[in-house]
Amino acid sequence: MATRKKPAKKKSRKPAKRGKMVPRKVIVAKKIPARAGSAAGTNPQRVAAILAKLDEAYPNATCELKHENAFQLLISTILSAQCTDVRVNQVTQELYKKYAKPEAFAYANPAELEKEIRPTGFFRNKTKAVMGASKAIVEKFGGQVPRTMEELLTLPGVARKTANVVLGTAYGIASGIVVDTHVIRLSQRLDLTRNEDPKKIEQDLMAVIPRNKWIQFSHQLIWHGRRVCAARKPRCAECNLETLCYAKDKTV
Ligand code: SF4
Fold first, then answer.
1. Is the pLDDT of residue 225 over 60?
2. Residues with Cβ < 8 Å from 209, sequence gap 6 or more?
3. Catalytic residue set
4. Is the pLDDT of residue 36 over 70?
C-alpha cells in the first residue's frame, strides 16, 4: 500500500521569536510631586485656593506708603528702596509740607534735599531720582504723573516695580504685578515661580494670576511677608496658607 506523503507544514507567518517572552512591563504613572514642574505649583485650582486664602486673611490689604496723590506715591516709592515704609512715612510727613508740588522737588536745592531724605538711605541717588523724575513730570508731562507703563519708565529712577505701584495703587490700572522683596520670597515659597529675576517672576505671576487680582495680590503678598512669612523665621504655625505651601524652610 502506497504511503501518502504528509503535507508539508505551512510556514508560520508569525515573526520569529527573538528570545524568551518577557512579560510586558506595566508602567505605573508616578505621582507628580508638588515641586516636580511648574504646572504642579501653578495649576488653576491651586492658584485659586491661594488667592482665596489671601482674600480671607487680608481683605483690605493696600499700600502702606502714606500719600495723597499719585505724585506723592511716586516720590515715596522711590524713597522706599532699601528702606521701610514706616521710615519713609516719617520722612515724608514733613517733606510733603515743604515740597507741595512737583515743581518744588524739580528745582529744589539738592544739598538740602539730600539732608532731608538722608534717613531713608542712598540719599544721593534718591535725590537725583526724585529731582529728575519731578523735572520730567513738570517739563514733559504737564505736571501730571503719566498713566502708562511706557511713559513712567522714561522717568529717572523709575523701573517696573515703582511704575506698577503708582499705576495700581494711585490709578487702579493693572499693568503688571509689583515684585518687591516680599513678593519674590513668597512667590518662590508658594511655588508660583522658579525664577530669581524680578522681571521673569513678574511674567510668571502675570501668567497665572487673573488680571483683576494683580493689584490686590501684590498688596496681599507684601502684607503676608511683613506679618507672617518673614524672610528668616516664617511663622508657619500661624499661616493660613500652610497646607498649600511647599517651602523647604517651613517651620512646621
Ligand atoms: S507656610 Fe510658612 S513659608 Fe509657607 S507661606 Fe506660610 S509662613 Fe510662609
1. yes
2. 47, 51, 177, 192, 217
3. 161, 180
4. no
Burial of 69 (0-12, 13-18, 19+ CB in 10 A): exposed
Residues 6+ apart with CB under 8 A from 40: 32, 33, 34, 191
In this predicted model, what pLDDT tens digit does every residue of 85-137 receive, in sequence order? 999 999 999 999 999 999 999 999 999 999 999 999 999 999 999 999 999 99
Among 242, 243, 248, which residue has the most ligand 1 atoms within 8 Å of its CB, making it the best to mutate? 242
Written as nine digits, the cell of 75 is 516720590
pTM of the model: 0.83
- The answer to whether residue 34 scores a pLDDT higher than 90 is no
Which residue carries 515740597 as its cell? 99
Least confident of 25-39, 139-153, 169-183, 184-198: 25-39
From ligand 1's centre to the CA of 227, what distance in Å?
A: 11
Name all residues whose Cβ lies below 6 A of ligand 1: 189-190, 228-229, 234-236, 239, 241-242, 245, 247, 250
* 155: confidence class by pLDDT, cuts 50, 70, 90: very high
Q: Which residue is it, cell 511655588? A: 191
What does 203-248 look like in DSSP terms, one character per residue?
HHHHHHS-GGGHHHHHHHHHHHHHHT--SSS--GGG-TTGGG---T
Pocket-testing residue among 223, 228, 238, 252, ligand 1, by greatest number of atoms within 8 A of Cβ:
228
